[in-house]
Amino acid sequence: MGPSPSYRMRRALFFVLAGSAGFVVDAGVLMLGLWAGLPAWAARGPSFLLAVITTWAVNRTLTFRTGAHPSLREFGGYLAAMSLGLAANYGLYLLGLILGLPPLAALAGASIIAMGINYLGARRVLDRS
C-alpha cells in the first residue's frame, strides 16, 4: 500500500529542511573559499562535499529515519545517488556565473532546481518504508 499522505508530507518537509541546512553550509563554505581567494568554480568543491555530508546526516536521521548505524558504504551510496543532482547543480551554477550572476545567486538557483533530483536519489538510498 505504501506510506500514508501525512508520512509523505512529513518526509518532504524534512527533506526541504535538510536541503536548507545543506544550502547554508554550501553557501557559508563557498563564501569562505571566495574570501580565501579561490575562484568561484573551485570553491564549490569543498562547499558541496560539506553540504552533502550535512544533508546525508539530516536526511538519514529525520527525513527517512533509517535506524541503521551510519556507514561509509551508506554514505558512498548516498553520494553516488546525489551525483546526478551534483552534476545539475554544478552545471547550473557555472551557467549562472557565465551569465554574470553573483556566486550566491548562482548557487541558490542551481540548488533549488537540483533539490528535486536529489530527493529521488536520497529516497532510493535511504528510504526503508
Describe the structure.
The protein is globular and about 45 Å long. It is mostly helical and 129 residues long. It has four helices and no strands. It has one domain (5-126). The longest helix has 31 residues, at 5-35. It has helices at residues 5-35, 40-63, 72-98, 103-126. The mean pLDDT is 87. The chain starts with a helix and ends with a helix.
Q: Give the helix proportion (percent range).
A: over 70%
Tertiary shape = globular
Whole-number total of structural domains? 1
Radius of gyration: 15 Å
Class from helix and strand fractions: mainly alpha
Unreliable segments of 5+ consecutive residues: none
How widely separated are the two ends? 11 Å
Q: What string, H for helix and E for strand, traces the elements in order?
A: HHHH
Let me know the average pLDDT: 87
Major β-sheet profile:
none
User: What's the tally of helices?
Assistant: 4
Total count of strands: 0
Strand content: under 5%
